[in-house]
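Hypothesis: this fold can be encoded by more than one sequence.
Test: take the structure tokens below, design a sequence, compare later.
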């Protein structure tokens, strides 16, 4: 397991290096001039050159990239072209909101998805199975922005039961939980549908196994067969989906944060792209990539805890 962790951190280093290079080059060849945005529309040519020199944009692109890497190795991700704020400070101030939203969405997805999938497998070909499959298909098909708008309209505007914008309260308070309900449902619905379908198919496969028939033949209670013997083995592919989705939720909160006016990493990234704020874009993209790799590592560790037969030697 230790060797696995070491290998994954080495892969993390290589992955972040490659992603940083791709993002840097993409921003360089994209149309527009960050110096012109910083200097303003009335800046003269000499003013633009002075701004480019102060921002380091007058150097060759590879020199700019290696200067950026040198700063990253020293913990310096640069400063925002727009606000002058440190990239690290900007991310640290926004990440808690995105993290809270991602965790809440994942809880919604796991609770709804796993329970629905198991019930569908146990009640195979029943009306429960048909209804769950239909709802799962709708959950995957409905766009986040439409679902978020409908939830705001129904529960925020018409019924006035839940707040519809921002995350200003502590997540441990009643108001903080209320703020998270609608955006968590909006973001977690698609993941819940995928988890439900995977849980159903995996559970159906495990239920048909010989050891499950043996347990039933020995008189083991049905509840124990399902929740003890079958569920543990059925959860391995489900955990894969959960891990991938969790990374995707943290990196894909852009639309949900826009709909619910949440100041998170998603909105920070969108604003930075619109303003061609290179340091902010690079910092947020590297953060999302790192989260994906770390989550996959955690999933591999959970595999070994659930099924001791799995070895990474």
């Amino acid at each position: 397991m230790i060797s696995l962790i070491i290998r994954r951190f080495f892969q993390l280093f290589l992955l972040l290096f490659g992603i940083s290079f791709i993002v840097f080059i993409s921003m360089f060849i994209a149309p527009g001039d960050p110096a012109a945005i910083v200097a303003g529309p009335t800046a003269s040519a000499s003013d633009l050159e002075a701004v480019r020199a102060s921002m380091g944009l007058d150097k060759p692109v590879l020199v700019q990239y290696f200067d950026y890497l040198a700063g990253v190795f020293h913990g310096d991700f640069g400063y925002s072209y727009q606000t002058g704020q440190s990239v690290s400070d900007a991310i640290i101030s926004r990440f808690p909101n995105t993290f809270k939203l991602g965790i809440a969405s994942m809880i919604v997805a796991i609770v709804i998805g796993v329970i629905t999938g198991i019930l569908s497998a146990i009640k195979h070909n029943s009306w429960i199975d048909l209804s769950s499959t239909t709802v799962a298909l709708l959950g995957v098909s409905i766009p986040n922005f439409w679902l978020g708008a409908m939830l705001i309209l129904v529960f925020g505007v018409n019924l006035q039961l839940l707040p519809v914008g921002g995350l200003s309260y502590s997540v441990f308070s009643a108001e903080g939980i209320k703020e998270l309900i609608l955006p968590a449902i909006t973001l977690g619905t698609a993941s819940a549908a995928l988890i439900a379908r995977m849980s159903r198919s995996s559970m159906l496969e495990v239920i048909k196994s010989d050891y499950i028939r043996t347990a039933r033949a020995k008189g083991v209670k049905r509840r124990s067969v399902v929740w003890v013997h079958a569920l543990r083995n059925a959860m391995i592919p489900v955990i894969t989906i959960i891990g991938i989705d969790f990374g995707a939720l943290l990196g894909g909160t852009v639309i949900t944060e826009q709909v619910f006016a949440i100041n998170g990493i998603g909105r920070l990234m969108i604003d930075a792209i619109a303003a061609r704020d290179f340091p902010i874009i690079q910092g947020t993209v590297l953060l999302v990539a790192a989260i994906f790799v770390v989550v996959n590592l955690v999933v591999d560790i959970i595999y070994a805890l659930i099924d001791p037969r799995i070895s990474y030697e």
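The radius of gyration is 24 Å. The chain has a mean pLDDT of 79.
Hypothesis status: open.
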